[in-house]
Each structure stands twice: as structure tokens, then as C-alpha cells.
Design a protein that fits this description.
single chain, alpha+beta, eight-stranded antiparallel sheet, six-stranded antiparallel sheet, 16 helices, 18 strands
Length: about 525
């Protein structure tokens, strides 16, 4: 066992295999869920992964995946079929007794007939608790392979061609990291709890046993190729190291997040890692950077291209828990992930509930920007920029408010609408950015002591003070505040007014002027 633990910890299979099927067979063998067809000259198991899988082999594998091998071997039921080899006798008799198979008719089980993708995926779905008959039927025997791919048990539908022993290994390994029907418990966890698989071997193979035993562990994934703007990772390596990972998020974040956003973000998160996950889930929610499936293709990891700009890659399981994270890459030969157990769904749900609560007050006030008589003016070399007073219910804005400004309003709204959203979805997006301490938020202060340029773009969209009054000692006594913006805007500007508690009171849209 120590040899097994050490070998797996180093990221090497117990028995070297060049293919994904070989890697899967090695892992299943170490868990006691796959048997060889003999041994080679070195005494290592021979799996015969390239030959078709037989019906007898499929039934045996089903019973092992269900954690019922001991029950099957102890079964005393009579064998109803005449063509079952001795090694599979108790398995087939047990499967018939339990209603898992009925044979092919005429007293024959069809032991030496080739199995199909539909047949084996039907077995796998049964092991996961899905039904193919009765009122709760989720699939039929004829649609099993397609249904399994649809819900993510497999990364492709095994509907054509021969179904090989290697396919059995790959499909079975994938099923271990899938939750049982109607629960959040993975099949591998159920097998450990039932004693069908040892906790040590499951943990050594990289599976979560108690949900936290591997949290914090560092995992190095080799960079198989480097391009100008990407480090390419082999998804098969990812799957071996994180067998429960089925989706990933690829994005970037500002490194100043830890220093700035953590101080102002009004979120349920307690760590930078959770904030990064939350922002990633919001990007997926609003359609900016959707989650992608982890398949056998390569994963592209963007390296750092600016000093304060960092890449982010998250690995998620079927329940959208983040099981692995990398938020740093220095351009070397490896990418280092940290094993995590961050509940992304609950983070997002709690945060969106806060967003909804702070949007409840929108439209309670009428917001206007007086563009008829702009105050002041300054030529920055590209055109005039002016101070526009902002009014709430007819009264000029004084302190204790935040202005949410978005020069990308039209572009963002178009993208949201193209993804089936609406203007209300856009407001949800804006409020999400506010609560995460987004850079478009700048606070005003009626005593004139706090104000900020808060520039959003080269067109100088910001909050500014004017009509300032100073005492003899040079202290600012009072000032008026307004929107400081270019007189020649190429895009419309969203202007939202929020109170200091983060509630959106109202909004207006300043149209483009060129």
C-alpha cells in the first residue's frame, strides 16, 4: 500500500500505460474494480483493452460499480443460463436475481457476445440510481449512451462502433466521480462508505473521500506545449489528478484584487480564493466567460502578460464545487494547482440574493443629469470635458452617495440580451460589480473632503468637485459634485445612484454625443 501511495502521489500510474484507457484501467485496478485477463512476462496485469467487451464482463463490472461484489459472490440463487463461464457464474446469477439483466432468450445469457455502448451505459446509469423503466424512467435502453453523455457521465456518446474493454475502463472511471441520483454523494464515496473500496486507495487515486482530506494539497501539471499567448495543458493529466473535474473556467483577474477589493467587497466570501470563484461564477452567469467541459482535448492557460494581470483556471465537479484552482503562472514548465473544496453554487446563490435585495429600491427616485448648462470645462487636448450636476428627485446630488458609471453600457447590454437576458439582467450585473468593489464606483462626500477622479477610460468619465470654497488656511469647506465627462462621448454612459449601503436608488443613461 505504501508503494501504491508513493507512486500515485508522484503522479505516475502503478503500471505504466500510454493511453487514457490504460491509465483508467490502472486506477480501477488499484481500487479493486477492474481485473486483468492474465499477467505479462514481468508479472504485471494484462488488460486486453483493445478487444471488444463481452456481456459477461459488462455485468461483472456493473456489480463492482454498485458495490455489491461480496453479495454477488455469496449469492446462492440457481444459474438460469447455460452459457455462463464459471468465473462469471455468481455475478450473472445475482444480476438475474436482482432484475439487472434478463439474458437474450432461449436460456442464453449471451456471455461471449459483444456488448454495446448502450448496454454498458444502461448498467452504469443503474449503478448511479437512474431508472430506465416505470414512472421515474429518465432514459431507455436504446438511449442510454446518449443520455449519459447529455448529463455528463461521459464526455461523448458511445453510440457507434465497437465497445472495447478500454471503453469499459474509461466510462467506469468517469462514473466514479459522478453523484448518485438525487444526491451530492459521488459513486466513489458511496463505494468507500459501503466498504467496497478502501478509503486509502480512493484517496491515493485522487478521489475526495471526506470532502476535505485533500484540500490544500499542491498538484503540478506539466505544460505540454507553450505558445505565444498560452500554456497548453493535457486534459488527460488534469483528469488523472482531479478525477471529479468535469468543467473548467479560464479567465483573468487584477492582482490588486487582494489589496483593494477585499477591503470593500460586500460579499459572503471570506477569502481571496472565494472572491475569485464568485467572480468567475458571475462571469459564467452573465455569459461573459462560460464554463467549458473537461474533455480529452487540451486546456489553454493564459500566462501573465502584464505585471498586475494574473491568469485564473478553476476546475469544477458535477455539483459545481471548485476542486482545483490555479491563480498564478510564471511561464515555466508546470502549472501548480491547489486542491480546494469551494461550494460555488452556494456562494453564487447567497451573493445574488444580496444583489436582488439591493435592487429592490431601484426606480424609487428619479435621476437626471443636467446637460443643458454644464459647469466649468477643461480642454484635455482631445476635446472639452465638463461637470454635469446629477439630480435626485429634482435636487442636486450632495454627499453620502455612490455613482455607478459604465461607459460599456451598450456593449454589455447587447451581450446580455444576446444571451437571453434583459435590461433588468444588466442592472443585476451592475449591482454585482458594485458589491464586488468594482472600479466604476466612486463615492461623493458633501463636506468636500473626499472625492476622486475615478477615471474609467481615456474619455474621462469620473466624479469631480467644483464650485469649491476654501477657508483662509487652505482647507476645503464645501464643494458641489457632479459627473465629469467628455463632451464628445462615442458611447452612451450608464449613471446609477446608490446609497452608501449599496442599494441602487435609480439610474439614467447619458446618450452618446458623437
Amino acid at each position: 500500500m505504501m508503494a501504491l501511495l508513493l507512486t500515485t502521489a508522484l503522479g505516475l500510474p502503478v503500471w505504466a500505460a500510454d493511453s487514457d484507457a490504460g491509465q483508467a484501467a490502472d486506477t480501477l485496478y488499484s481500487l479493486g474494480l477492474f481485473r486483468g485477463t492474465g499477467t505479462d512476462e514481468q508479472g504485471q496485469p494484462r488488460f486486453d483493452l483493445e478487444r471488444p467487451a463481452l456481456r459477461s464482463e459488462a455485468v461483472v463490472m456493473l456489480i463492482r460499480l454498485m458495490g455489491r461484489e461480496k453479495e454477488a459472490l455469496a449469492c446462492t440463487a440457481a444459474q438460469p443460463f447455460t452459457d455462463v463461464p464459471q468465473w462469471a457464474d455468481r455475478y450473472v446469477a445475482y444480476a438475474y436475481e436482482q432484475g439487472l439483466t434478463n439474458g437474450i432468450g432461449g436460456g442464453q445469457f449471451g456471455s461471449d457476445l459483444e456488448t454495446t455502448g448502450n448496454m454498458y451505459l444502461a448498467f452504469v446509469l443503474r449503478a448511479l440510481g437512474y431508472r430506465d423503466s416505470g414512472a421515474e424512467a429518465a432514459y431507455t435502453y436504446a438511449t442510454a449512451a446518449e443520455f449519459a453523455a447529455q448529463i455528463g457521465v461521459t464526455d461523448r456518446a458511445y453510440t457507434a462502433g465497437q465497445f472495447l474493454r478500454g471503453d469499459i475502463a474509461e466510462v467506469s472511471l468517469s462514473a466514479l466521480s459522478f453523484p448518485l441520483y438525487g444526491t451530492e454523494r459521488l459513486l466513489i464515496q458511496a463505494l468507500v462508505e459501503d466498504g467496497a473500496v478502501s478509503a486509502a486507495s480512493a484517496q491515493a487515486a485522487g478521489f475526495p473521500v471526506d470532502g476535505s482530506s485533500l484540500v490544500g494539497q499542491k498538484v503540478s501539471i506539466a505544460v505540454v506545449k507553450q505558445e505565444y499567448d498560452a500554456a497548453i495543458l493535457d486534459a488527460a493529466q488534469i483528469k488523472r489528478a482531479f478525477p471529479t473535474a468535469c468543467q473548467f473556467y479560464r479567465g483573468n483577474y487584477w492582482q490588486e484584487t487582494e489589496e483593494q477589493v477585499m477591503e470593500v467587497a460586500k460579499t459572503p466570501s471570506t477569502s481571496l480564493e472565494e472572491l475569485l470563484v464568485l467572480e468567475a461564477m458571475l462571469n459564467d452567469h452573465f455569459g461573459d466567460i462560460p464554463l467549458e467541459p473537461v474533455t480529452d482535448s487540451a486546456l489553454y492557460f493564459n500566462p501573465v502578460d502584464e505585471e498586475d494581470y494574473r491568469p485564473l483556471l478553476l476546475l469544477l465537479d458535477h455539483n459545481s464545487n471548485v476542486v482545483g484552482m490555479c491563480n498564478s503562472y510564471d511561464g515555466g514548465d508546470t502549472v501548480v494547482f491547489t486542491r480546494t473544496n469551494i461550494q460555488a453554487v452556494s456562494l453564487l446563490e447567497e451573493f445574488l440574493a444580496q444583489v436582488a435585495a439591493r435592487l429592490a429600491r431601484k426606480d424609487q427616485v428619479e435621476v437626471a443629469v443636467d446637460t443643458s448648462d454644464p459647469q466649468g470645462g477643461w480642454n484635455d487636448g482631445t476635446g472639452m470635458a465638463y461637470h454635469y450636476p446629477v439630480y435626485i428627485d429634482g435636487e442636486e446630488l450632495a454627499g453620502d452617495y455612490w455613482l455607478a458609471l459604465d461607459l460599456d453600457y451598450q456593449w454589455k447590454l447587447d451581450g446580455i440580451q444576446n444571451n437571453g437576458g434583459s435590461f433588468d439582467t444588466y442592472l443585476e450585473y451592475m449591482m454585482s460589480n458594485l458589491l464586488l468593489g468594482g472600479s466604476m464606483i466612486t463615492m461623493t462626500d458633501d463636506n468636500g473632503r473626499e472625492h476622486s477622479y475615478g477615471e474609467l477610460s481615456e474619455e474621462y468619465q469620473s466624479i469631480y468637485a467644483y464650485d469649491e470654497h476654501w477657508d483662509r488656511d487652505g482647507n476645503l469647506i464645501s464643494a458641489r459634485y457632479g459627473l465629469y465627462t467628455s463632451a464628445q462621448r462615442s458611447q452612451p454612459l450608464f449613471v446609477g445612484v446608490c446609497d452608501k449601503e449599496g442599494n441602487l436608488l435609480g439610474y439614467t443613461i447619458l446618450e452618446a454625443t458623437k
